[in-house]
Amino acid sequence: MPTIKYLSLFSCLFLLLLLACNEVNPKSEKEAATFVKQWNAAHTPIKAAFLEPYYLDVVTYYDKEFTNDQVQQDKNLLFQQFPDYKQRILNDQLEVTKVEGRFLVTFTKQVTYSGIEANYPSYLELTVKNGKFKILREGLSKNAKNLDAPIFPNARTSSVVLSKNRQLFGDFDGDGLSDYATVLSPEIQTAIPTNTQSNDTVVCKGGCNSVIIFSNKNLKPITIEGAYQSQLENLKDLNSDAADEIGFWDIKPTTKSLYVFDATNGRLLTEPIVINTTVHKNLKLIDVFKKSGVNKITVTSSEQVEGKWVLKSRVVGL
Protein backbone atom coordinates (compact mmCIF):
# COMPACT_ATOMS: atom_id res chain seq x y z
CA MET A 1 0.00 0.00 0.00
CA PRO A 2 2.71 2.57 0.85
CA THR A 3 4.31 1.91 -2.54
CA ILE A 4 1.02 2.64 -4.30
CA LYS A 5 0.61 5.87 -2.28
CA TYR A 6 4.13 7.02 -3.23
CA LEU A 7 3.49 6.23 -6.89
CA SER A 8 0.26 8.25 -6.77
CA LEU A 9 2.08 11.15 -5.12
CA PHE A 10 4.88 11.13 -7.70
CA SER A 11 2.31 10.94 -10.50
CA CYS A 12 0.52 14.03 -9.15
CA LEU A 13 3.79 15.95 -8.80
CA PHE A 14 4.84 15.02 -12.32
CA LEU A 15 1.47 16.15 -13.66
CA LEU A 16 1.71 19.48 -11.82
CA LEU A 17 5.23 20.08 -13.13
CA LEU A 18 4.14 19.25 -16.65
CA LEU A 19 1.24 21.66 -16.47
CA ALA A 20 3.49 24.35 -15.00
CA CYS A 21 6.00 23.95 -17.81
CA ASN A 22 3.28 24.21 -20.40
CA GLU A 23 2.17 27.51 -18.82
CA VAL A 24 5.62 29.19 -18.91
CA ASN A 25 5.55 30.41 -22.51
CA PRO A 26 1.92 31.62 -22.61
CA LYS A 27 2.39 33.43 -19.28
CA SER A 28 5.63 35.10 -20.42
CA GLU A 29 4.08 36.18 -23.71
CA LYS A 30 1.10 37.58 -21.85
CA GLU A 31 3.43 39.57 -19.59
CA ALA A 32 5.29 40.88 -22.65
CA ALA A 33 1.98 42.04 -24.14
CA THR A 34 1.07 43.77 -20.87
CA PHE A 35 4.45 45.53 -20.82
CA VAL A 36 3.91 46.87 -24.35
CA LYS A 37 0.42 48.12 -23.46
CA GLN A 38 1.86 49.95 -20.47
CA TRP A 39 4.60 51.45 -22.67
CA ASN A 40 1.95 52.60 -25.14
CA ALA A 41 -0.18 54.18 -22.39
CA ALA A 42 2.85 56.19 -21.20
CA HIS A 43 2.93 58.04 -24.52
CA THR A 44 1.02 61.08 -23.38
CA PRO A 45 2.60 64.51 -22.79
CA ILE A 46 2.03 64.32 -19.04
CA LYS A 47 3.70 60.90 -18.79
CA ALA A 48 6.69 61.40 -21.07
CA ALA A 49 9.07 61.30 -18.11
CA PHE A 50 7.92 57.78 -17.25
CA LEU A 51 9.21 56.26 -20.52
CA GLU A 52 12.82 55.99 -19.34
CA PRO A 53 12.43 52.71 -17.38
CA TYR A 54 11.14 50.89 -20.46
CA TYR A 55 14.39 51.09 -22.47
CA LEU A 56 17.87 49.59 -22.23
CA ASP A 57 20.83 51.94 -21.87
CA VAL A 58 21.48 51.60 -25.63
CA VAL A 59 18.77 50.65 -28.11
CA THR A 60 18.15 50.40 -31.83
CA TYR A 61 15.65 53.20 -32.30
CA TYR A 62 14.11 53.40 -35.78
CA ASP A 63 17.20 51.75 -37.31
CA LYS A 64 19.71 53.96 -35.49
CA GLU A 65 21.65 53.43 -32.27
CA PHE A 66 20.39 55.74 -29.53
CA THR A 67 21.21 55.98 -25.86
CA ASN A 68 18.33 55.92 -23.41
CA ASP A 69 18.80 59.66 -22.83
CA GLN A 70 18.62 60.37 -26.55
CA VAL A 71 15.40 58.37 -26.83
CA GLN A 72 13.84 60.41 -24.03
CA GLN A 73 15.00 63.66 -25.61
CA ASP A 74 13.40 62.62 -28.88
CA LYS A 75 10.15 61.64 -27.15
CA ASN A 76 10.07 64.92 -25.25
CA LEU A 77 10.67 66.87 -28.46
CA LEU A 78 7.83 64.94 -30.13
CA PHE A 79 5.45 66.02 -27.36
CA GLN A 80 6.73 69.59 -27.51
CA GLN A 81 6.15 69.73 -31.26
CA PHE A 82 2.76 68.01 -31.13
CA PRO A 83 1.13 68.63 -27.72
CA ASP A 84 -2.04 66.91 -28.97
CA TYR A 85 -0.16 63.73 -29.93
CA LYS A 86 -1.86 60.46 -29.01
CA GLN A 87 -1.17 56.85 -29.92
CA ARG A 88 -2.95 53.58 -29.28
CA ILE A 89 -2.68 49.94 -30.29
CA LEU A 90 -5.30 49.40 -32.97
CA ASN A 91 -8.07 47.07 -31.79
CA ASP A 92 -5.86 46.30 -28.78
CA GLN A 93 -4.28 43.48 -30.81
CA LEU A 94 -0.70 42.31 -30.33
CA GLU A 95 1.29 39.39 -31.72
CA VAL A 96 4.07 38.11 -29.49
CA THR A 97 6.79 35.75 -30.72
CA LYS A 98 9.44 34.39 -28.37
CA VAL A 99 12.81 33.55 -29.93
CA GLU A 100 15.91 32.65 -27.91
CA GLY A 101 14.77 34.47 -24.79
CA ARG A 102 13.67 37.61 -26.62
CA PHE A 103 10.14 38.71 -27.45
CA LEU A 104 9.17 40.28 -30.77
CA VAL A 105 5.89 42.16 -30.35
CA THR A 106 4.15 43.41 -33.50
CA PHE A 107 1.09 45.64 -33.61
CA THR A 108 -0.54 48.46 -35.56
CA LYS A 109 0.08 51.81 -33.95
CA GLN A 110 -2.68 54.35 -34.58
CA VAL A 111 -1.49 57.91 -34.09
CA THR A 112 -3.27 61.26 -34.11
CA TYR A 113 -1.57 64.66 -34.24
CA SER A 114 -2.46 68.08 -35.62
CA GLY A 115 -5.77 66.74 -36.92
CA ILE A 116 -4.08 63.84 -38.76
CA GLU A 117 -4.83 60.18 -38.06
CA ALA A 118 -2.66 57.39 -39.46
CA ASN A 119 -1.88 53.71 -38.86
CA TYR A 120 1.64 52.29 -38.82
CA PRO A 121 2.62 48.60 -38.54
CA SER A 122 5.15 48.68 -35.72
CA TYR A 123 7.26 46.43 -33.52
CA LEU A 124 9.15 46.30 -30.25
CA GLU A 125 11.81 43.72 -29.44
CA LEU A 126 12.03 43.02 -25.73
CA THR A 127 14.64 41.36 -23.60
CA VAL A 128 14.72 40.58 -19.90
CA LYS A 129 17.27 42.35 -17.68
CA ASN A 130 17.38 41.89 -13.92
CA GLY A 131 14.01 40.18 -14.07
CA LYS A 132 12.29 43.03 -15.92
CA PHE A 133 11.34 43.58 -19.54
CA LYS A 134 13.37 46.19 -21.41
CA ILE A 135 13.04 47.48 -24.98
CA LEU A 136 15.94 46.46 -27.18
CA ARG A 137 14.55 47.69 -30.52
CA GLU A 138 11.74 50.02 -31.56
CA GLY A 139 10.70 50.65 -35.13
CA LEU A 140 8.31 50.24 -38.04
CA SER A 141 7.64 47.09 -40.03
CA LYS A 142 9.08 46.81 -43.54
CA ASN A 143 5.68 47.36 -45.18
CA ALA A 144 5.08 50.66 -43.35
CA LYS A 145 4.37 53.70 -45.53
CA ASN A 146 4.67 57.48 -45.07
CA LEU A 147 7.94 57.13 -43.19
CA ASP A 148 8.68 60.82 -43.69
CA ALA A 149 5.88 61.83 -41.31
CA PRO A 150 7.08 64.50 -38.83
CA ILE A 151 6.29 62.27 -35.82
CA PHE A 152 9.24 59.98 -36.50
CA PRO A 153 12.80 60.69 -35.31
CA ASN A 154 14.25 60.96 -38.82
CA ALA A 155 12.30 64.21 -39.18
CA ARG A 156 13.91 65.59 -36.03
CA THR A 157 17.50 64.38 -35.95
CA SER A 158 18.40 66.88 -38.67
CA SER A 159 16.85 69.78 -36.75
CA VAL A 160 18.07 69.22 -33.20
CA VAL A 161 21.19 68.32 -31.32
CA LEU A 162 20.79 64.99 -29.50
CA SER A 163 24.34 64.75 -28.27
CA LYS A 164 26.05 65.11 -24.91
CA ASN A 165 28.51 67.75 -26.09
CA ARG A 166 26.62 70.57 -24.34
CA GLN A 167 25.91 69.00 -20.98
CA LEU A 168 25.75 71.23 -17.92
CA PHE A 169 26.04 69.39 -14.61
CA GLY A 170 24.41 70.36 -11.33
CA ASP A 171 21.87 69.34 -8.71
CA PHE A 172 18.82 70.81 -10.41
CA ASP A 173 16.18 69.02 -8.31
CA GLY A 174 17.77 69.34 -4.88
CA ASP A 175 18.10 65.62 -4.14
CA GLY A 176 21.83 65.81 -3.48
CA LEU A 177 22.72 63.93 -6.67
CA SER A 178 24.31 65.28 -9.84
CA ASP A 179 22.03 65.82 -12.87
CA TYR A 180 22.77 67.37 -16.22
CA ALA A 181 20.95 69.66 -18.62
CA THR A 182 21.37 70.07 -22.35
CA VAL A 183 19.73 72.15 -25.07
CA LEU A 184 17.76 70.98 -28.10
CA SER A 185 18.51 73.70 -30.66
CA PRO A 186 16.52 74.37 -33.84
CA GLU A 187 17.90 73.98 -37.33
CA ILE A 188 18.80 77.36 -38.80
CA GLN A 189 17.63 77.65 -42.42
CA THR A 190 19.25 81.01 -43.17
CA ALA A 191 22.81 82.04 -42.50
CA ILE A 192 23.41 84.84 -39.99
CA PRO A 193 24.60 87.85 -42.00
CA THR A 194 27.82 89.36 -40.70
CA ASN A 195 27.04 92.87 -41.96
CA THR A 196 23.71 93.40 -40.20
CA GLN A 197 22.73 94.60 -36.77
CA SER A 198 19.24 93.06 -36.87
CA ASN A 199 18.19 90.30 -34.48
CA ASP A 200 15.36 89.21 -36.78
CA THR A 201 17.33 87.88 -39.76
CA VAL A 202 17.30 84.20 -38.81
CA VAL A 203 14.70 81.68 -39.96
CA CYS A 204 14.54 78.23 -38.33
CA LYS A 205 12.88 75.04 -39.47
CA GLY A 206 9.79 74.60 -37.33
CA GLY A 207 10.38 77.88 -35.49
CA CYS A 208 13.33 79.36 -33.62
CA ASN A 209 12.68 77.79 -30.22
CA SER A 210 15.19 76.07 -27.94
CA VAL A 211 14.34 73.48 -25.28
CA ILE A 212 16.29 72.77 -22.09
CA ILE A 213 16.14 69.02 -21.38
CA PHE A 214 17.18 67.48 -18.05
CA SER A 215 18.61 64.01 -17.40
CA ASN A 216 16.29 63.79 -14.38
CA LYS A 217 12.96 62.97 -15.99
CA ASN A 218 11.07 64.46 -13.04
CA LEU A 219 12.17 67.90 -14.28
CA LYS A 220 10.02 69.15 -17.12
CA PRO A 221 11.63 70.57 -20.28
CA ILE A 222 11.81 74.38 -20.50
CA THR A 223 11.07 76.05 -23.85
CA ILE A 224 12.60 79.43 -24.74
CA GLU A 225 10.81 80.96 -27.70
CA GLY A 226 12.81 82.84 -30.32
CA ALA A 227 16.16 81.36 -29.20
CA TYR A 228 18.39 79.60 -31.72
CA GLN A 229 21.90 80.01 -30.24
CA SER A 230 22.53 79.54 -26.54
CA GLN A 231 24.79 78.74 -23.62
CA LEU A 232 23.86 77.24 -20.24
CA GLU A 233 25.13 78.34 -16.82
CA ASN A 234 24.87 76.70 -13.40
CA LEU A 235 23.84 79.58 -11.11
CA LYS A 236 23.91 77.47 -7.91
CA ASP A 237 21.16 77.65 -5.30
CA LEU A 238 19.70 81.16 -5.29
CA ASN A 239 16.38 80.74 -3.44
CA SER A 240 17.39 78.37 -0.62
CA ASP A 241 15.48 75.35 -1.95
CA ALA A 242 18.66 73.16 -2.11
CA ALA A 243 18.41 72.98 -5.93
CA ASP A 244 20.74 74.72 -8.39
CA GLU A 245 19.14 77.34 -10.62
CA ILE A 246 19.93 77.27 -14.32
CA GLY A 247 20.91 80.18 -16.55
CA PHE A 248 20.17 80.28 -20.28
CA TRP A 249 21.99 82.78 -22.52
CA ASP A 250 19.94 83.66 -25.60
CA ILE A 251 22.64 84.84 -27.99
CA LYS A 252 21.73 87.16 -30.88
CA PRO A 253 23.93 89.22 -33.25
CA THR A 254 23.52 92.43 -31.19
CA THR A 255 22.34 91.22 -27.77
CA LYS A 256 22.78 88.56 -25.11
CA SER A 257 19.88 87.83 -22.77
CA LEU A 258 20.26 85.81 -19.57
CA TYR A 259 17.19 83.86 -18.45
CA VAL A 260 17.30 82.72 -14.81
CA PHE A 261 15.13 79.62 -14.26
CA ASP A 262 14.10 77.65 -11.22
CA ALA A 263 14.66 74.21 -12.75
CA THR A 264 12.29 72.48 -10.31
CA ASN A 265 9.26 74.22 -11.81
CA GLY A 266 10.52 76.03 -14.93
CA ARG A 267 9.66 79.47 -13.47
CA LEU A 268 11.61 82.60 -14.37
CA LEU A 269 13.05 84.19 -11.22
CA THR A 270 13.54 87.58 -12.86
CA GLU A 271 12.93 89.25 -16.19
CA PRO A 272 15.55 88.37 -18.84
CA ILE A 273 18.76 90.33 -18.29
CA VAL A 274 19.52 91.97 -21.65
CA ILE A 275 23.00 93.15 -22.65
CA ASN A 276 23.63 95.27 -25.75
CA THR A 277 26.77 93.52 -26.99
CA THR A 278 27.57 96.12 -29.65
CA VAL A 279 28.14 98.68 -26.85
CA HIS A 280 28.93 96.59 -23.79
CA LYS A 281 31.37 94.02 -25.09
CA ASN A 282 33.14 91.09 -23.45
CA LEU A 283 31.02 91.08 -20.30
CA LYS A 284 31.18 87.88 -18.29
CA LEU A 285 28.53 86.22 -16.14
CA ILE A 286 29.94 87.81 -12.96
CA ASP A 287 29.58 91.26 -14.56
CA VAL A 288 25.82 90.94 -15.02
CA PHE A 289 24.73 88.54 -12.28
CA LYS A 290 25.70 88.09 -8.63
CA LYS A 291 24.21 86.55 -5.53
CA SER A 292 24.06 89.43 -3.07
CA GLY A 293 22.38 88.00 0.02
CA VAL A 294 19.88 85.46 1.28
CA ASN A 295 17.37 84.99 -1.55
CA LYS A 296 18.70 88.11 -3.28
CA ILE A 297 20.57 88.66 -6.54
CA THR A 298 22.04 91.75 -8.19
CA VAL A 299 21.49 91.96 -11.95
CA THR A 300 23.10 94.39 -14.38
CA SER A 301 21.62 95.13 -17.80
CA SER A 302 22.02 97.54 -20.70
CA GLU A 303 19.61 100.46 -20.66
CA GLN A 304 19.28 103.55 -22.83
CA VAL A 305 19.44 106.80 -20.89
CA GLU A 306 19.25 110.14 -22.72
CA GLY A 307 20.23 108.49 -25.98
CA LYS A 308 23.20 106.62 -24.53
CA TRP A 309 23.53 102.96 -23.57
CA VAL A 310 24.63 102.50 -19.96
CA LEU A 311 24.86 99.62 -17.52
CA LYS A 312 22.40 99.79 -14.63
CA SER A 313 22.19 97.42 -11.66
CA ARG A 314 19.30 96.50 -9.39
CA VAL A 315 18.67 94.07 -6.55
CA VAL A 316 16.02 91.39 -7.08
CA GLY A 317 14.39 89.51 -4.21
CA LEU A 318 13.59 85.86 -4.89
Short account of what is shown:
The chain is α+β, with helices and mostly antiparallel strands and about 325 residues long. Helix content is about 20%, strand content about 40%.
Topology readout:
Elements lengths: L1 H40 L13 E7 L2 E4 H14 L4 E4 L5 E5 L2 E12 L2 E14 L2 E9 L27 E3 L8 E6 L2 E2 L15 E2 L3 E6 L7 E4 L4 E7 L8 E7 L3 E8 L4 E2 L4 E4 L8 H4 E5 L2 E10 L2 E10 L1
Parallel strand pairs: 1-7
Antiparallel strand pairs: 1-2, 3-5, 4-5, 5-6, 6-7, 8-9, 9-12, 10-11, 12-13, 14-15, 15-16, 16-17, 16-18, 19-20, 20-21
Descriptors:
7-stranded mixed β-sheet; Nuclear Transport Factor 2, Chain: A; disordered N terminus; DUF4440 domain-containing protein; elongated; 318 residues; alpha+beta; single chain
Description:
The structure is a single chain. With 318 residues, the protein is an alpha+beta fold. The protein folds into two domains: 132 residues, Nuclear Transport Factor 2, Chain: A (Roll), CATH 3.10.450.50; 112 residues, no CATH class. Helix content is 18%, strand content 41%. Strands 1, 2, 3, 4, 5, 6 and 7 form a seven-stranded mixed sheet that branches. Strands 14, 15, 16, 17 and 18 form a five-stranded antiparallel sheet that branches. It has a four-stranded antiparallel sheet with strand order 8-9-12-13, covered by helices on one side. It is elongated. The N and C termini lie far apart (87 Å). The N terminus is likely disordered. This is DUF4440 domain-containing protein.
